[in-house]
User: What shape does this take?
Amino acid sequence: MRSKSSLHFVLESDNLNLVRAVTDKEKASWEAEGLIKACKSEMAHFEKLRLAHYAREANKVANWVTTHRRNYLPRDWLTNPPNVLWDLIVFKAHVLCNG
Assistant: This one.
């Protein structure tokens, strides 16, 4: 059994139904039950993990990725994000860390 990570994470999603199902505030559809179970299993490895819903328009990083994923994102965008995406990530991290 893996030990739990002590890092603090906030997972953000623009899918309110997903957030409510994973946090047991709503029953998942039968089609999504396996995915929800897998999410909960992975989330159990973290001591300090919070799942939050934000409208896509409020989450500039997710909105940018969704808008540009087909035409602009290189294959290695997760490990080498484009400058504009990196700037959004750094700004978001600054806001989360500094309130």
